[in-house]
Design brief:
The chain is of the alpha/beta class and about 350 residues long. The protein is built from 12 helices and 10 strands. Bound molecules: S-adenosylmethionine (SAM), 6-(5-methyl-2-OXO-imidazolidin-4-yl)-hexanoic acid and iron/sulfur cluster.
Length: about 350
């Protein structure tokens, strides 16, 4: 049965609704034990879990737009948009105009995306920004697209206003394990992220929350990130697994390279521990070849960003994405409530 995002939203997710008798909550050591499985056993378990909860050959397509780029006061060590680092390619801009956002959203729809994700380089939205942002959400949704937005920390009122405007998902990432977080970000604590996620839930929004792999964290820390995500109650409907895109000028520009199979393992472990979530193969596809992306799909990833750019960096080539989908027999996942093509 295809569990649509809508059905995920209305029915609280039983944490162990898998045929594989998964634990009801995941300790880091249990997640680490999944990581340690022989690769093919891990892939088999992830693929079996995936097939129990989603159509096997469907991939959700989202398009990303940076609606306000650069000049951010936070010091996230991976980010091109922090004002603390000298980077090229993320020149500070004002908030985009509504017509420009709508033109980009229409183009995304024409290219086959069913969800439009908007990102702003803010620590948190200011009150004066909220009317323009909520207007964007309502107008993009009126085009027949699902909406997702990421604006940084939120107050309860702001989360409520976004819900009122018709927002479907709020993206706010935990990024990494609690005990590695301080190596990457000093300007806001882990707890503030958990607090924002709770406000998003309380407002009745669906949660999109994941992290970044390849920042120099250990396997145990990757397991701890997944345990944190799977331990959210309920776990997120959407989990972006980003591969670090190293940005020149940031503290992580020379992060040690990660074994690509370790990235695939992380996807598989996310799929097994959060069986009904959409696992998003997010940043980093431009640096991955077709075979590695295919392994990520086999491991249970069922969403990608489609389009020329992510926020400030190039995305994987759309023409190649289509060819790869054809070669693999993958079909776009219809939006919630829409029949399959
Ligand atoms: N400013 C808001 C915030 O941080 O919540 C929203 C935008 S922020 C750029 C959204 C997410 O993009 C980050 O939490 C991080 O996980 C991801 N991201 C940013 N730069 C990245 C990079 N260089 N490589 C991989 N992921 C990245
Ligand atoms: C997420 O987890 N990944 C997206 C989205 N949420 C906003 C952002 C990826 C950014 C990659 C680096 C860049 O283009 O600046
Ligand atoms: Fe700012 Fe978000 Fe980048 Fe952190 S990840 S520096 S909060 S834009």
């Amino acid at each position: 049965m295809h569990l649509s995002a809508d059905s995920l939203a209305v029915s609280p997710q039983p944490p162990c609704a898998t045929s594989l008798a998964a634990p009801t909550s995941w300790k880091t050591s249990e997640v680490e034990a999944l990581f340690a499985l022989p690769f093919l056993d891990l892939l088999h378990q992830a693929q079996t879990t995936h097939r129990a909860h989603f159509p096997a050959n469907e991939i959700q397509l989202s398009t990303l737009l940076s609606i306000k780029t650069g000049g951010c006061p936070e010091d996230c060590g991976y980010c091109s948009q922090s004002s603390k680092y000298e980077t090229s390619g993320a020149k500070p801009t004002k908030l985009m105009s509504l017509p420009d956002v709508l033109a980009a959203a229409q183009q995304a729809k024409d290219q086959g995306a069913t969800r439009f994700c908007m990102g702003a380089a803010w620590r948190n939205p200011k009150e004066r920004d909220m009317p323009a942002v909520t207007e964007m959400v309502t107008a993009v949704r009126a085009l027949g697209l699902e909406t997702c937005i990421t604006l940084g920390m939120l107050s309860g009122e702001q989360a409520g206003a976004l819900k009122q405007a018709g927002l479907d998902y709020y993206n706010h990432n935990l990024d990494t394990a609690p005990d590695f977080y301080g190596n990457i970000i000093s300007t806001r604590p882990y707890q503030s992220r958990l607090d924002t996620l709770q406000k998003v839930r309380d407002a009745g929004l669906r949660v999109c929350c994941g992290g970044i792999i390849g920042m120099g964290e250990s396997r145990r820390q990757r397991a701890a990130l997944i345990a944190q995500l799977a331990g959210l109650d309920p776990y997120p409907e959407s989990v972006p697994i980003n591969h670090l895109v190293p940005i020149k000028g940031t503290p992580l520009e020379n992060a040690p390279p990660l074994d690509p199979l370790e990235f695939v393992r992380t996807i598989a472990v996310a799929r097994i521990t959060m069986p009904r979530t959409v696992v998003r193969l997010s940043a980093g596809r431009e640096q991955m070849d077709d075979a590695l992306q295919t392994l990520c799909f086999a491991a249970g990833a069922n969403s990608i960003f489609l389009g020329a750019r992510l926020l400030t960096t190039p995305n994987a080539d759309m023409g190649n994405d289509r060819k790869l989908f054809d070669r693999l027999g993958l079909k776009p996942m219809p939006a919630a409530g829409q029949p399959a093509a």
